Amino acid sequence: MLPPARPALDPRRAAGVFGLLAVLAAVVFPFAPVEQPEATYSWTAADGAAAIPLLPYQPVQLSARTSCATARDAPPEQVLLSTVPVQTAQGAPALHGLLLTGTGGAVRVESAGVDLGTVDLPAGDCTLAVVSDPQRTSVLIDGEQVLARNGDVRPEVAGAFSDVRSGVELQLSTDTRFETAISPWKAAIGAVGVLALLGALAALHRIDREAGRHVRLLPRRWWRPRAVDAAVTALLGVWWVIGAITVDDGYIAGIVRSIGGNGFVGNAYRWLNAPEAPFSWFYDLYHLWSLVSPSTPWMRLPSTLLGLLLWWLLSRLVLPRLGRFAHRRWVPWCAALAFATWWVPFGLGLRPEPWVAVGTLAVFLAVERTLATGRLLPLAIGLVLAGATTALTPAGLMAVAPFLAAGLPLLSRLRGRRDLHPAALVAVLVAAAASAVYLMVPDQSLAGMLEAVRVRTAVGGGQPLFEETDRYRRLLEWTFQGAIGRRAAVLVTLLAAAGVLWSLRRTRVGIAPGPARRLVVGLLISMAALSLSPTKWTQHFGDLAGYGAAVLVLGAVAWSAAPLRPHPRAFVAGLAATTVVGAIVLAGYNLWPYQGAWFTPTFSTLSPRVADIPVATIVLVVGGAVVAVLLARWTWQDAGGSPRSPLPRWLPAPAPVLAVVLVAVLALQVLTVVRVAVTHRDSYTLASDTLSTLAGNPCGLQERLAVETDPAAGVLPALDGAPVGTLLVDVGGRPVPGVAVAGRTTTPWAALDPRQRNGELPVVVTTSGTLQPGDGLFLEFGDGAGVVERRPIAPRLPVEDDIRELAPPAASTVRLAVDAPEGGRALASLPRAPRLTPMLELLPPGTSALLDWPVAFLFPCLTPEPLPLGTAALPDWRVAPPLDSTETHITYGPKYGGPFVAPRMLIAERRMPTYLAGDPLRDPGQLYRWLPITPLARPEPTVTWHTVAGWHADGRARVPEIDPIG
């Protein structure tokens, strides 16, 4: 007799069991142990000065020792040990380290700027030690405590320096709390949680099938390409080649490319390189992507592919859900315009906005599918997607908007499912949402993540919720923050949302009221969720691209003539709103950040004009006049008791007017960049970068830069051989002959270099010191017989700067003329023709360099300097933005948690001006040589790995000028 068959696992029970197991795993995961390295440095005075630039700046534990004999033999005020340089180069930041100073028969001890006291040395042989940790700093003689200070007065450490050559030792452990790796235990918990979640989802799928709730997922012929798909794909392809970078592409590129050297996703430019957790998983994907190639076009390809996915979701799934109007022939083209309106100003680049836009629209579709079919699996998948979107960026919390907008009908659907116990359903849905934790802290401990949040909060850099209005204020600025494309997308979408809400109350015109209402409400909730973003850049509006494009299409239907003409008041109100919004949009400038603004034509630095009249003014006057005439006509008729006359048939509805505005704005953005790409193809543009990469030259801006390594070598000699330049001007650390900007002086004539005569090279003069308003500095160009042109030149900020001028065509000679009051303190170098070296020769591909964040994206062939094992590297080179950029100070400022504060204390910067091919007058950026102020040893650490609990923490990192001492 056969044994009875074992019944298959009941999917209802399986859903509850797997769901509960997945929830427990998600709760335990952040507390799970991680692998943390321990790096210990040892140094003796015999090693000489050493570089040990810590990050965070304080060690976890420090022990310093000196023999009493060494201290007694030291002359008064001799430095026995200092963990920061006693003297630093001009412009270097300040840290407060450990300082042991001999005073004859005693030793004075200072730590973190706190005077701990003076210790009298006993007679005979003895050892003085200083031991410092987050709880206490103690001074001991032969192991007996003689001085102590409770609290955290650990010193900052940039290295080890001493005036003696023996008898002093230092040992310290670096702070590696952020450099953790996933442990086998944590990996196992994560695997159990993910497998349990998959089991719960599979059980939901079986339950849905048993309930007979199988509904086709994709529309028929969804795969068939259309002409509009080709147009959108072409636009995305063109924009991928030519589109401008975003304000943070360099910032994110620096973080992404530093992951390999740092071992984790840390903010390599501020906040003590604190982890980006819990919002960092897309950085890991970009890091893996960059391992194939860090070139500019390759790194911009994921956002372009996300754009294609967003278009597919919008055109194939969202629009059919919003109503039968989607079958009209013009709707796909309207959707393409709406998509492009949002994508062009916001979508391309490394920022998370494309990911959030796709995630939120996918969640909306998941919720709508649950409402349409009653199935539970789409709801659970939507919660998984919402969690993943939230783990992208703080504003990603807008992914919960579809659940809030559909709250009541969703609860009604869930209550109607009697085939699954409520507890099991709750367990599965909570497990789905909690799955985000695996993306938030995959290799970080809970303590590390909380410390990172604390550091970011303490240092600041963000804005509170109640300052969200700043985002909209910036949208109306005449900068790239309020660029015309950004205004068009946001403001026209808001107007469309108002039209949709009006239409749903009065006329449907093929719009499905439920999905449309939920879409608009979801958009408004999402805009409120933007306030959670700590910064208020208008770039964040790109998170709304999916919602915004769909609402624009709905608005085109709601604001068209058919639903509005039966309602004259609404028609005129729509025209009035269109006039105001259109004028505000067209008052914007077509501007882009950083290199996107290079070669901008004059018409892009102004609002659009016709016959020198702003188009915004024309729109406002014409539209206002039409509205005013209609209102006056109706008022006259009402006063006379006559019936109101119908609207003129020629009067356009708001929708086509807005469509014209959007087409014009889109054309202005794209065609302007096309113009720049074509007319300046011999210089650097994003288009030339992409084409060069495709041709096998992937080094970006570096391909088109040359460096002036020795300014003195290019000084133009006097025609008569007479010595000129009685003073020396400091040009990037190199002395160049020059004159004082004081009194009246004219240098002898010098022959122009042939390349200066043909316009290939500029005439360069460098100023230094402080120029006064009355100082006159002139370049006089001659033709051998006299002065051809006398050109005033002026310094730019900062004060030390290169003034570059092209010689007039007829000139063959040049001289410098000064007409200034006596006693001036400024200097000007003699005119020179820069001797240039291609940057690729000076820094071959693979060279390590410190890449400042505004330019890091554009130098893919240079390797970012790492921040390994609680330290910062000591770079040989720094690549910086133009001299007028003041945005890089955070990387070198202690109060910002700048990662390269300690290395900057150890070096002197030598500036090397760079010159851009095709535009020699432009300052494209700066190259700095970092030269140690003294020969420095580079001790190697002893590294061991330990397994620590997720809540383990060694004190906390202290940010100078913010966190209190002690």
Automatic annotation (TrEMBL):
Tell me the function of this protein: Arabinosyl transferase responsible for the polymerization of arabinose into the arabinan of arabinogalactan.
Q: Start and end of every Arabinosyltransferase C-terminal domain?
A: 671-725, 807-957
Q: Which Gene3D superfamilies match?
A: 3.40.190.160, arabinofuranosyltransferase like domain
Q: Where primarily located?
A: membrane
What domain of life does the native source organism fall in?
Answer: Bacteria
Keyword Ribonucleoprotein present in the record's keywords: the answer is: no
Q: Which family does it belong to?
A: Belongs to the emb family.
**Glycosyltransferase: is it a keyword of this entry?**
yes
Looking at the record, the residues that make up the Arabinofuranosyltransferase central domain are 183-634
The name under which this protein is listed is Arabinosyltransferase domain-containing protein
Name all Arabinosyltransferas concanavalin like domain ranges: 36-176
Q: Which InterPro entries match?
A: Arabino_trans_C, Arabino_trans_central, Arabino_trans_N, EmbABC_dom1
Localisation per UniProt entry? Cell membrane
Q: How does it sit in the membrane?
A: Multi-pass membrane protein
Question: Which keywords fit this entry according to its UniProt record?
Answer: Cell membrane, Cell wall biogenesis/degradation, Glycosyltransferase, Membrane, Transferase, Transmembrane, Transmembrane helix
Can you tell me where the transmembrane regions are?
Answer: 187-207, 227-247, 298-318, 330-348, 379-411, 423-441, 484-504, 516-532, 544-564, 571-593, 613-636, 657-678
